[in-house]
Amino acid sequence: MSISVSEEIRLLSPYVPGKPTSEVQREYGLTDVIKLASNENPLGTSPKVIEALKNKLSELNIYPDPSCHDLTLKLEQYWNYPSANMVIGNGSNELIDLAIRVFCEPGDKIIIPEKSFIAYEICAQAARVGVVKTPLLDIFETDFDFLYDYLKNKKTKKEKILFLANPNNPTGTYIKKEQLVKILDLTASYSDFFIFLDEAYTEFVRATDCPDGISMMSKYPHLVSCRTFSKVYGLAGLRVGALLGPTEILQWLHRVRNPFNVNSLAQVAVMAALDDKQYLENSKKIVWAGLDYFYSAFKKMSVDFIPSQGNFIMFDSREDGNDFFNRCLKKGLILRPLKPYGLKTHIRLTIGNTNENHKALEIIKSELKA
Ligand SMILES: *Cc1c(COP(=O)(O)O)cnc(C)c1O
Description:
By secondary structure, this protein is of the alpha/beta class. It contains 14 helices and 13 strands. Strand 3 (109-113), helix 6 and strand 4 form a beta-alpha-beta unit. Helix 4 runs parallel beside helix 11 (264-275), helix 5 (91-103) packs across helix 6 and helix 7 (144-154) runs parallel beside helix 8 (177-187). The chain binds pyridoxal-5'-phosphate.
């Protein structure tokens, strides 16, 4: 038998997930392993979520609600945004994938800034869609003037979606509200084009000039906001994301999505997570304290880092990032080397709990070369 695939599929580099803790324990014979590699919530599962899941366990013979009716009604209250204008997805990853598959033809393109979340590129390539990358300034922020000029003077009909992760993973940088407004105003009259604002880390933002997509959507019908329950809500294992936007865009995603894309446990878990205000407050507090802890330690150690609006921090290991990563691994610390992003010496560190942060810093200190 012979079977062939397209060039794009053949050359696709699959997403490299954070190394699982159990794998590191096995490979290095370690019991004490800290994983700060996947921007997961260090607080564990909320007790309210566990309780809600227990009550649902006896109904797993029933298909999930394909419309996520109860969940979207709750989200309507929570975000003060109409439930009719939401698509719930199997993580935001599914929503990114769907947006590209639905609105781009093979040969079309998406626009992303350099060093954006890598899922956009992978999903595009799988759909035979090209990627235009706009450059960053040397402080790792998007070169806004370049992006604006590109959209104004160089964009062709082929480019259908601009993906903006705000704040961005893995850099932790963000684009300012006034910048986003300029781009939205410029592109308001463009046809077959919209802006996909990925706000996975929006709850952690402390900068006061970082935009909130939801509050801008009534004015800009070519803007959609993507939210995830994997980060501050602590539900990465259950896979839930939400896309908010106008019916003109979302109706086509609803048409194409799998009918039962969000399972029944995931639906009740998110509802319970929304009610656990204490968990959400603690998640933010622990991240903010952890960021400040690493900022001050890195400053003392003269380590170059980028101030972050997410629950992670990117720093420069000053050597091949994979080598640094591997040495930390042997000591039981799982970090994320950023070579897949073309950042050869940079490492991304997720903020953990206080104990994990102390231990991680000790290991990083001992492995950093002078
Ligand atoms: C973590 C992350 C997400 C969340 O992805 P899920 O599929 O919802 O788990 C989305 N966008 C960015 C930029 C992220 O870093």
